[in-house]
Amino acid sequence: MLVLAGFAVSNYYNKVKLAMLEKGVAFTEELNWASKDEPTLGASPLGKVPFLRTPQGTLCESQVILEYLEDAYPQVPLLPADPFERAKVRELVAFTELHLELVARRVYAQAFFGGTVSQGTIDATRRDLERGVAAIARLVKFAPFLAGDRFTMADCAAVVHLPVISMAGKAIWGEDPLAALPVRDYVKRLGERPTVQKVNADRKAHTELLAKMRAK
Fold it and tell me: What phi and psi, each to the nearest 5 degrees, are found at residue 85?
């Protein structure tokens, strides 16, 4: 039995969880708030979540885990069969995470957690996000899924990352940095999938739990 460790507020945890739900892989969940204790570091050397316990050992880094799942459980594929099309899906994941989510993450402390970031960081983040959005707009299809007519691992990443980026932009700049893309309709459409509904419900529950923990 696979064990997915982490917490459901994490976009990257939810990315892996969604992939496992879509593939119909049997797994259990282990709550871990990205602890830095020795058992966690033994599984994930930076203490990051998610990590996955398998019969052979542990794996960390969300995209590594998705690639493992694709190889180990090919019955419900999240990548096309054609090598070029597979690469195009991976390209979308890379653009979504490297040029959008990790850029927007610079302002999450202020957008969501009551912290502050410098005006220089805010300005640079907006500039880099605008560049990233313009770039990924050349790649995405939304037809109806990110890469075309089928659900792929690109959607596992996009449907958990893009709403958070939009919320951060509205909190910091008063506007959605993804407004030029049909993200709202896309997220609404994917929200009709039972797997996405499950991920969203668990994220809400863990967000409320985290808020209670911080209030103590």
Answer: -65, -35
Of the candidates 94, 164, 165, the one whose C-alpha atom is nearest the C-alpha of residue 129 is: 165
Tokens 């957008």 belong to 111
Angle at 34 between CA 113 and CA 16, to 5 degrees: 95
User: Mean pLDDT by 10-residue block, N- to C-terminus, for the chain (216 residues)?
Assistant: 96 98 98 94 97 98 98 98 98 98 98 96 98 98 97 98 98 97 97 98 91 80
Q: How far apart are CA 50 and CA 159, in angstroms?
A: 17
Cα–Cα distance for residue pair 97/72, rounded to 1 Å: 24
Separation CA 114–CA 129 (nearest Å): 22
Look up tokens 């990051």; give the residue: 48
CA dihedral 142, 176, 191, 53 (to 10 degrees): 90
HSE, CB side, 13 Å, CA atoms: give it for residue 68: 19
Q: What is the pTM of this model?
A: 0.96
CA 31 to chain centre: 17
